[in-house]
Amino acid sequence: MQDLLELFRLGGFVLPLLLLAAIIALAIIGNRFWVLRRARIVPAGLVERIAELVDVGKVPQAVKQLYESDTPLARILLVALQHAGKPRELIKEAVEDAGRHEMAHLDRYLNFLGSIAGVAPLLGLLGTVFGIMHAFAAIGAVGMGDPKALAGGIAEALITTAAGLIVAIPSLLFYRYFRGRVEVLVLATEKDVLKLVNLLAGGKS
Which of 25, 65, 157, 165 is most open to solvent, judged by the fewest CB atoms within 10 Å of its CB? Predict the structure, then answer.
């Protein structure tokens, strides 16, 4: 604990900012891991169950299942059911509008995570600059004969550089991972929705 406090003392004012950025990044990463689960976005077998019910004319049961599921896929399928019997292009246009609205939630906070990945090294660099300035100020005050006077500035420079990279590297990796995850989920959703759209259109064009 004493070492940690000493580390913060040496890190200057930049280190608390980097710690705050790290906490926010961790919160976003945890949130996206929870939200971007496949079962929460595109439940397995949902479109098949809905298609079976629609195929045998049990539309009210299908609507009930979709309300109970309450997932992005279910909400888009519900829009498709509301346009049942209309030409395929009209149904597709309606579900695309609903899809854009639902999929926007999947991207939430990712731009902020990407910004943390970009800003953290700059904060580290800022701390480096201040550390070097403090080191030169110490040289100006006591000369080159006292290494201890230089140590504080050099430590600040190195600690903030390392902290900036420690925050930025995982933030960037998770940002890219979640971007890829969103693309996979969007494609899976589109594939499932098109199955129901084709069934509801019944060959109409």
Answer: 165
